[in-house]
Design brief:
By secondary structure, this protein is mostly beta strands. The chain has five helices and 38 strands. The strands form seven sheets. It has a 22-stranded antiparallel β-barrel. Strands 3-9-10-7-8 form a five-stranded mixed sheet.
Length: 654
């Protein structure tokens, strides 16, 4: 179910640019090791009946620095969700994956495909940058990424960078962090194909096929899937609700293509394309339309060429994404025609990584064009048509960035600086500086300082009744310090942080301030066949606007306490994992008068390798049938699912 709001027009069903932007080479020694790093990653993620799944505690990440870096060399808090863990979320979305990660909490107005939001380090999804293969994924009208529409089946890995370090690397919207999704097929090295079919609760079914071909310097990957469910009634209080209470179904079809070719040892090129088509049912406000639904069609394509030498790697890429979202509900002037929000994003990037002995220097420039076309809608209070033309309906962002990274045996260093010139507001400068030292084997201590900003969305600037074309970007200053201990069997980190944010957009003005401070504990262990991990987050996110009646209040939907714990057991023929996620009390409103109760969800997942080619997968969510609430809007409590399951069979052709 969804409430159409100016901040979330047309269900936020947005899919943005998906590119083939690859991993840029690091320093001379790192560049020489890059092929082995890629092969190592592929070997680590291969799962079959002859090799039990493993957990790698020192994985390679690129999001934290734009260069391949070991997790134990990153300064900002970083987490990797690899293909093995994603395999446990078959038939589910990226939102489901992130909801079980440390330090991330969500809201959602119903089941699959419905409007959602997530929160990290005290910021909501508009202030956390989402990338897909290096390219922004967000709605240019509402500013939120529709991760509830992204299938986990087509994803190879997810990297989470906590805090504002990413602002000086990627620009706007990274005050709370960066989440980057890497799609399947970009590093195909073997020939294989697989077919998956699964069923679950609420008449959910999922079918998919994926194939890869690799030979003579050419790699081709193709994938397609379909998911459909009857859903459930998203209204928990139907007798007093302002919405029409019925089951809200969801269906989506997805297709993807990735092609990479090496013209020589130095030159490579490629392209990627993605198409997604989905329909989400929701309940229209006022019960005027009993069968409201939204259609979403998305397309993206990207092409690149890369030149690599022992001293540098340079990549030039260009991509374009299209998005068409049409909602058929009481907010539409014509129900059949619906209210439409069409967006287009065009992006070009030139980036070079240079051996700067003893570290790596990064130089880059970006060009981004964002365009939005929207139809008229009905005013909720009067029913009269409202003109929603955005003026202007296009903006251009020109950016340049420079950085330096050093990963040494005894210390780590990272410094970045970025300039963004946006046609709608003043030039913005962001930077970060971080350092870590190793006083003894396995022990690391470090700190980081970063600035960040968020550009106003098109709705912030121009949506009727809420608009202010003179809005300025939001800004933040963040400090982070940590102590970490890692060895062959475990990695444990304690991080403390503080962020001061100002010029926050509220009521159409830059009037808001927020003070955010917290601490995070993460610990992951592996003992041969046994895996164990836990996370705990303490957060204080308060309104710091001195003249506000809510001064000192908790910002809504931010719990003071949250935590995760998991335990897994792995054998060559099967594996099983139990995980629990606790979310503490949090307020539903700025006045702190309505509180949502704490809840704990326990999930079970497992795989059985029946034959070398046939694998069975089962996931059971909320096995204790916990009753909980994720969202309460205008007195309407949104229902959540009880115990649910999804099982599938995957047959692989080698």
């Amino acid at each position: 179910m969804s409430i159409p709001t100016p901040a979330n027009s047309s269900l936020n069903l947005r899919l943005c640019l998906l590119s083939a932007l690859g991993i840029c080479a690091p320093s001379l020694s790192q560049a020489a090791l890059l092929p082995s790093i890629v092969n190592e990653q592929n070997e680590q993620t291969a799962i079959n009946a002859d090799t039990a799944p493993t957990t790698e505690l020192d994985e390679i990440v690129v999001t934290a620095s734009r260069t391949p870096t070991k997790v134990t060399n990153t300064i900002a808090q970083t987490r990797v969700i690899d293909s093995e863990e994603l395999q446990r979320y078959q038939g589910q979305s990226v939102l489901d994956v992130l909801s079980n990660q440390p330090g991330i909490n969500i809201t959602q107005s119903g089941g699959m495909g419905t409007t959602s939001n997530f929160y990290m380090r005290g910021f909501d999804s508009k202030q956390v940058l989402m990338l897909i293969d290096g390219v922004r994924y967000e709605s240019i009208s509402s500013g939120t990424p529709a991760i509830n529409l992204l299938s986990a089946d087509q994803i190879d890995r997810i990297e989470i960078l906590y805090g504002a370090t990413g602002a000086s690397l990627y620009g706007s919207d990274a005050m709370g962090g960066v989440i980057q999704i890497f799609t399947k097929g970009s590093n195909a090295t073997t020939n294989n194909a697989s077919v998956t079919a699964g069923v679950g609760s609420h008449n959910l079914y999922n079918v998919g096929v994926n194939g890869q071909y690799a030979a003579s310097g050419t790699a081709l990957s193709l994938g397609a899937s379909r998911t459909k469910t009857d859903g459930f009634n998203a209204i928990a209080n139907p007798s007093s609700s302002n919405y029409y209470p019925d089951d809200d179904g969801f269906e989506t079809n997805n297709a993807s293509l990735a092609l990479n070719h090496h013209l020589s040892d130095e030159v490579s090129m490629g392209l990627s394309a993605l198409y997604s088509e989905s329909t989400t049912e929701f309940d229209s406000y006022g019960k005027t339309v009993p069968n409201a639904y939204a259609d979403q069609k998305n397309g993206s394509a990207n092409t690149y060429i890369q030149y690599q030498t022992p001293l540098s790697v340079t990549k030039l890429s260009y991509g374009q994404s299209i998005d068409k979202s049409t909602s058929h509900d009481g907010n539409s002037i014509d129900y059949k025609q619906g209210s439409q929000f069409d967006t287009t994003q065009k992006q070009a990037r030139l980036e070079t990584n240079i051996n700067a002995q003893p570290g790596t220097a990064i130089l880059g420039a970006e060009w981004l064009s964002q365009n939005l076309e929207a139809s008229d809608v009905n005013d909720w209070s009067t029913g009269a048509p409202v003109k929603t033309a955005y003026d202007p309906d296009n903006r251009i962002v020109k950016s340049a960035f420079v950085g330096y990274q050093l990963a040494d045996q005894y210390y780590d260093l990272q410094a970045n600086y970025r300039v963004d010139d946006n046609s709608q507001y003043d030039t913005q400068n962001t930077y970060n500086l971080g350092v870590a030292i190793r006083p003894m084997t396995g022990l690391r201590i470090g700190a980081n300082y970063a600035t960040g900003f968020r550009a106003p969305t098109f709705n912030d600037l121009y949506f009727p009744g809420y608009n202010n074309p003179n809005l300025k970007p939001e800004h933040s200053k963040s400090t982070e310090a940590f102590i970490e201990f890692a060895n062959d069997t475990q990695r444990t980190r304690v991080t403390g942080y503080r962020t001061d944010a100002e010029n926050l957009i509220a009521s159409g003005s830059n009037i808001g301030k927020a003070k955010i401070k917290g601490a995070s504990l993460t610990s992951d262990w592996t003992f041969e066949s046994l895996l164990f991990g836990l996370g705990y987050d303490y957060l204080e996110a308060t309104d710091d606007t001195s003249n506000s009646p809510n001064y000192g209040n908790d910002i809504r939907y931010r719990p003071n306490h949250s935590g995760t714990v998991y335990i897994g057991y792995q054998q060559p023929s099967y594996d099983v994992r139990v995980e629990a996620k606790h979310t503490g009390d949090r307020f539903n409103d700025e006045t702190n008068k309505t509180k949502l109760d704490a809840y704990t969800l326990v999930n079970l997942s497992g795989n059985v390798y029946i034959t070398p080619q046939l694998r069975a997968n089962l996931r059971v969510n909320n096995i204790t049938d916990e009753e909980y609430t994720l969202s309460n809007q205008y007195g309407d409590v949104y229902a959540t699912d009880g115990t649910s399951y999804f099982g599938s069979l995957t047959y692989s052709f080698y």
